[in-house]
UniProtKB/TrEMBL annotation:
It comes from Neodiprion lecontei (Redheaded pine sawfly). One of its GO terms (biological process) is DNA replication initiation. It comes from the Eukaryota. Keywords: DNA replication, DNA-binding, Nucleus. This is Origin recognition complex subunit 4. SMART domains: AAA. The lineage of its organism: Eukaryota, Metazoa, Ecdysozoa, Arthropoda, Hexapoda. The gene is LOC107225575. The keyword Protein biosynthesis does not apply. GO terms for cellular component: cytoplasm; nuclear origin of replication recognition complex. Component of the origin recognition complex (ORC) that binds origins of replication. Residues 56-217 form the AAA+ ATPase domain. It is found in: Nucleus.
Length: 452
C-alpha cells in the first residue's frame, strides 16, 4: 500500500473519531433552543421581562412530566433575556435545586453567594438561621422598585423545597414577591401535579397561584403546522448532522477541537438525510416515538448509537439503531441479576422455585436456604459455603429490593424468619441466566427445570 493511500486511510479514521466526539457533545450538551410550547414560553418570558423592566414582582410554577422540556424552556428564555442590556446589567439570577439545597440553611448560603452579598455580610456573625434570613431579606427589600436590582429565583425540583421545615424559605420569598417591596420573580419547576397541595396555608396564601403546564409531544403553538413525529424526524437529522462549512459560529465554540473537513461533513450529512427517507428507519423511529415522546430519552438513545462508530465501523446502519434500542430498553432488573454472584443468583433461583411451589406465598431465609442446600448437595460441582456467607448474600438481594418485606415496620421477628415477597418474574430470571457469563451448567439447568 502506498504512502498516499495510508494517509487517506488515516485521514478518514481521524474524521470518524472527530465525528463521534462532535456528535456526542452535540447530543448530550444542554440546548437553549426550544421547540413547541410557544404560548407557555411567551408567558414566562413576559413575566420575567416585567420583573426586569417594570420592577414587578411575580411568582409562578412550571409543571410537567420529566423530560418534557421545562428546564430547556427556562434556559431559552434566560438566554433571550441576556441579550437585553437592561437584563445583563441589572438583573440577578439565583438558581436553587431541591436535590442540592436540602435544607433552607444551604439554600440561603448559596443565595447569598449568587447574589454576591458575601461582602455585605463581611465579618457579621449570625447566631440563628432566622437572623441570617432576616439580613438577606433586608438586602432584598432595601430601596424601592427603581433602586433595587431585580432578582429572579429559579427553584428546580420545587416540590422538594416544600419538605423543608416550616417552608421558611418559600414563605419569605413569596412574601417579598407579594408585598412588592423589591422586584423579584420566584419561578418553581416541578413534575408534581399536586404541588399546590404540598404548600402550607400561610405559604399558599402568598403564592400567586399562577401555574403553567407543559405536556410532552404537544406541538400547539408551533410556527409550522407539522405533526409531532415530523418534528422528531427533523430533530433526528439535526442531532446527527455535521457542520458542512469551515466557519464555526458562536454556538459551536465548544466544538473547536472537533474541526470536521467540509467535504467529509457534506457527504456525512447527505447520508444522514438518506436515513430519514429510509422507510425501515422511519417506521422504527415512529415506533420509538409512540412508546416514548421524551426528547431527553431520545438523546440518550442516540448517544448510545453514536458510541458504535469506530475506524472499523465508520457508518451508522439501520441495524445499529435496532440493536442499540434492544440494549437501551433492557430490563433494569435483568441487568441487576446479571451483576450478581453465582451464589446470589442461586438464591434467586431457589426463591423462584419456592414461590412456584407454594403459589406466590411469602418466603424467608430459612426456606430459601433449605432449597439451596438441597440443590448444592445434589450437585458435587457446586461449592459448599457456610451459612453466614449465604445470609450475607441474602441480605444483598434484600438491599437491591429484589424481594420486598411483608409486614409493618413494627413487626419484630428474627431476620432468618422475616417474610418477603418475591418480586421477579420467570422471564426476567430466564433472560439473566441466558446472558450470565460462564454460569455453571448445573445452575442454568436448575433455573429452567420443573418444580422441585
Amino acid at each position: 500500500m502506498s504512502k498516499k493511500q495510508n494517509m487517506a486511510i488515516d485521514f478518514h479514521d481521524n474524521m470518524i473519531l472527530l465525528t463521534r466526539k462532535y456528535l456526542k457533545r452535540k447530543i448530550m450538551c444542554p440546548e437553549t433552543k426550544f421547540r413547541h410550547h410557544v404560548k407557555e414560553r411567551v408567558h414566562i418570558l413576559d413575566l420575567l421581562k416585567r420583573t426586569v423592566e417594570n420592577g414587578e414582582s411575580n411568582s409562578a410554577l412550571l409543571i410537567g412530566p420529566r423530560g418534557c422540556g421545562k428546564t430547556t424552556l427556562i434556559n431559552s428564555v434566560l438566554k433571550e433575556l441576556s441579550s437585553l442590556k437592561s437584563f445583563k446589567d441589572e438583573a440577578l439570577v439565583v438558581n436553587l435545586h431541591g436535590l442540592v439545597h436540602t435544607d433552607d440553611r444551604l439554600a440561603l448560603k448559596d443565595t447569598t453567594r449568587q447574589m454576591q452579598l458575601e461582602n455585605a455580610v463581611g465579618d457579621k456573625v449570625f447566631g440563628t438561621f432566622a437572623e441570617n434570613l432576616s439580613f438577606l431579606l433586608e438586602c432584598l427589600k432595601s430601596g424601592d422598585k427603581t433602586q433595587s436590582k431585580p432578582v429572579i429565583f429559579i427553584l428546580d425540583e420545587f416540590d422538594l423545597f416544600c419538605a423543608h421545615r416550616n417552608q421558611t424559605l418559600l414563605y419569605n420569598l413569596f412574601d417579598v414577591a407579594q408585598s412588592a417591596q423589591a422586584p423579584i420573580c420566584v419561578l418553581g419547576i416541578t413534575c408534581r401535579l399536586d404541588v399546590i397541595e404540598l404548600l402550607e396555608k400561610r405559604v399558599k396564601s402568598r403564592f400567586s397561584h399562577r401555574q403553567i403546564f407543559l405536556f410532552p409531544g404537544d406541538t400547539s403553538g408551533s410556527d409550522q403546522p407539522t405533526s409531532a413525529f415530523d418534528d422528531r424526524l427533523k430533530l433526528f437529522q439535526h442531532l446527527l448532522s455535521l457542520p458542512d462549512d469551515e466557519n464555526v459560529n458562536e454556538t459551536d465554540q465548544q466544538y473547536e477541537d472537533c474541526k470536521i473537513n467540509p467535504q467529509f461533513g457534506a457527504r456525512w450529512n447527505e447520508y444522514i438525510k438518506s436515513l430519514t427517507e429510509n422507510m425501515t428507519m422511519v417506521n422504527f423511529l415512529k415506533r420509538m416515538y409512540q412508546l416514548d415522546v421524551s426528547e431527553r430519552s431520545f438523546r440518550n438513545f442516540l448517544a448510545l448509537v453514536i458510541s458504535s462508530l469506530s475506524e472499523k465501523h465508520p457508518k451508522l446502519e439501520v441495524n445499529d439503531f435496532v440493536e442499540a434500542n434492544k440494549f437501551f430498553h433492557q430490563d433494569d432488573k435483568v441487568l441487576t441479576l446479571q451483576g450478581l454472584s453465582v451464589l446470589e443468583l442461586c438464591l434467586i433461583i431457589a426463591m423462584k422455585h419456592q414461590t412456584e411451589i407454594y403459589d406466590d406465598e411469602p418466603l424467608n431465609f430459612e426456606m430459601v436456604l433449605n432449597r439451596y442446600v438441597k440443590f448444592a448437595n445434589q450437585n458435587s460441582s457446586i461449592q459448599t459455603v457456610q451459612r453466614p456467607v449465604i445470609m450475607k448474600a441474602f441480605e444483598h438481594i434484600k438491599n437491591l429490593e429484589l424481594i420486598q418485606p411483608v409486614g409493618g415496620p413494627n413487626t419484630r421477628v428474627e431476620k432468618e424468619h422475616q417474610l418477603y415477597k418475591f418480586s421477579l418474574g420467570w422471564q426476567q430470571i430466564a433472560d439473566a441466566v441466558k446472558n450470565y457469563p460462564e454460569l455453571p451448567t448445573e445452575v442454568s439447568q436448575w433455573a429452567v427445570s420443573s418444580l422441585q
